TrEMBL record:
Coiled-coil region list: none
Annotated Pfam families: Aminotran_5, GcvP2_C
Superkingdom of origin: Archaea
Chain's gene name: gcvPB
Reactions catalysed: N(6)-[(R)-lipoyl]-L-lysyl-[glycine-cleavage complex H protein] + glycine + H(+) = N(6)-[(R)-S(8)-aminomethyldihydrolipoyl]-L-lysyl-[glycine-cleavage complex H protein] + CO2
GO molecular function: glycine dehydrogenase (decarboxylating) activity
Signal peptide location: none
Residue span(s) of domain Aminotransferase class V: 165-294
Domain Glycine dehydrogenase C-terminal: 374-471
Protein name: glycine dehydrogenase (aminomethyl-transferring)
PANTHER family: GLYCINE DEHYDROGENASE (DECARBOXYLATING), MITOCHONDRIAL, GLYCINE DEHYDROGENASE, DECARBOXYLATING
Start-end of Basic and acidic residues biased regions: 22-32
Length: 499
């Protein structure tokens, strides 16, 4: 590994700059010189007290590097050059919708008025509540849903909330059901959500054309079906043309239809899950609405539902304050409220407010036309790229993404080699319906020139020998890393750099 470029000191070594200290003892220095009983000794005005924390939670050293601002700036710039970002080049990681996050949303979130304490009373944060209300409304209109909660902190958390809401709905109807149906091409979180929700997972095979097999669905459906979880377009980038028939079949047995919103970028401003018959959905705002993606920061995964499910949503939601609390002559006022049969709380306050604010800013800036334009270009870009690459691309025509096959090559090797050509690789080996899958989603943000650059990278790798691929990447800061070890026992401390 070549991480040694990122050194902490000028001579290239890690040197703790502070002597080891026992931090189980806290020093309290009395600057006034007024001393308590224990202090006032010849040693100076220092009191030590026992830390209230248990021993296993205290550190025995806190050796902070003492660096100047330029040293720090260089360190982080060097690190940023060792990795790959959407600001470096195209990032066609299928199903993830790695679109560029426009920085104006950061400006909006950095406005001093955006930083409100969540415990402030509703009267003093009317602007915040109004934006929450309007975002609920935007999302409901985009998804064709009747009510939205902003609370869940990620798409997967939204799935869990959606399935909990569905199960609360069935329970309220005195209708115990034990199964959730998930297509075999679904994202792993769908299976996990269904299982965590207490359901038996019924896996649904695809038909020859890569879509839901209606015969298999018929066979899987029963009085035990609580829900069918689908994403549309599906993970192959194909629109489920039979969606109305699928909805009818699921509803006929008393089940609910769940929409995994990860692929909403394909439909924005053009089609709505609610109109297709979906009863509940989550929105991945970091995919569709350009809020920060990955990196372990806070996220958001709002959930929308149809009228019948609204009373089960998590608390609180935000509404216009009607009746006596509102001034009939003046502006509407907004209040938090708990839906009557709420499943409870899944996150503090309104959810991750600053992330939600960025989603709001993005939607408001694009408007109806901008959103419809985004989905059109996302679909056009995926189909253009699918045409240009020399790997076999089964199925099609596509929506926002397509799945090519690396054929005799190993998809993971292809991905590593693509890094050498200055582009990010696609998602690999999923869905399993396509052997050595290269799941590719360029998104609407790429120009024709960058799509051509991507196609060239794909096509160059397609013509290369296995031996070349097996040792790739050659031109990146880190070479062939042991991914399993990196994932299972990550080194998360900067101490490791010097060792
Ligand atoms: C990304 C994704 C999810 C999970 O969403 P997170 O916000 O990452 O938790 C679920 N389903 C599909 C199809 C996805 O692509």
């Amino acid at each position: 590994m070549r991480y040694d470029q990122a050194r902490w000191t000028r001579n290239g070594e890690y040197e703790p700059l502070l002597a080891e200290k026992d931090l189980t003892r806290v020093e309290i220095r009395d600057t006034e010189g007024e001393t308590g009983e224990e202090s006032g000794s010849a040693e100076g005005d220092v009191t030590t007290v026992e830390s209230p924390l248990p021993d296993e939670l205290t550190r025995d050293e806190l050796a902070l590097p003492g660096l100047s601002e330029p040293e720090l700036a260089r360190h982080y710039t060097r690190l940023s050059q060792m990795t790959y970002a959407i600001t470096t080049g195209p990032y066609p990681l299928g199903s993830c919708t790695m679109k560029y996050n426009p920085t104006f949303t950061e400006d909006v979130a950095a406005l001093p008025d955006a930083a409100v304490h969540p415990d402030r009373p509703a009267e003093s944060v009317q602007g915040t509540l109004e934006l929450c209300y309007r975002l609920q409304d935007y999302l409901a209109r985009i998804g064709g849903m009747d009510a939205v909660t902003l609370q869940p902190p990620a798409g997967a958390a939204g799935e869990f909330v959606g399935i909990r809401v569905a199960s609360a709905y069935h329970e309220a109807n005195g209708d115990e059901r034990s199964e959730v149906i998930v297509p075999e091409s679904a994202h792993g979180t769908n299976f996990a959500t269904a299982a965590l929700g207490g359901y038996d997972v019924v896996s649904l095979p695809s038909d020859e054309a890569g879509r839901v097999d209606l015969g298999a669905l018929e066979a899987a459906l029963s009085e035990e079906t609580a829900a069918l979880m689908l994403t549309n377009p599906n993970t192959l980038g194909l629109f489920e043309r039979d969606i109305e028939e699928i909805a009818r079949m699921v509803h006929d047995v008393g089940g609910l239809l769940y929409y995994d919103g990860a692929n909403l970028n394909a439909l924005l401003g053009r089609a709505r899950p609610g109109d297709m018959g979906f009863d509940v959905m989550h929105y991945n705002v970091h995919k569709t609405f350009a809020t920060p993606h990955g990196g372990g920061g806070p996220g958001a995964g709002p959930v929308g539902v149809s009228e019948e499910l609204a009373s089960f949503l998590p608390a609180p939601r935000v509404r216009e304050a009607g009746g006596e609390s509102a001034d009939p002559e003046g502006e509407p006022t907004y209040e938090r409220f708990d839906p009557p049969e709420t499943i409870g709380k899944v996150h503090g306050y309104e959810g991750n407010w600053l992330v939600l604010l960025k989603a709001f800013a993005y939607i408001a800036r694009l408007g109806d036309e901008g959103l419809a334009d985004a989905s059109a270009k996302a679909v056009l870009n995926a189909n253009y790229l699918a045409e240009r690459i020399e790997y076999e691309v089964p199925y099609g025509p596509f929506h926002h993404e397509f799945v090519a096959s690396a054929g005799d090559q190993d998809a993971a090797d292809v991905a590593k080699r693509m890094l050498d050509y200055g582009v990010h690789p696609p998602t690999t080996k999923w869905p399993e319906i396509v052997g050595e899958a290269l799941m590719t989603e360029p998104t609407e943000v790429e120009s024709k020139a960058s799509l051509d650059q991507l196609a060239e990278a794909f096509n160059t790798v397609a013509s290369e020998a296995t031996e070349t691929l097996e040792t790739a990447p050659e031109r990146t800061a880190a070479g062939r890393i042991d991914q399993t070890t990196a994932a299972r026992t990550p080194r998360l401390s900067w101490h490791a750099l010097g060792e």
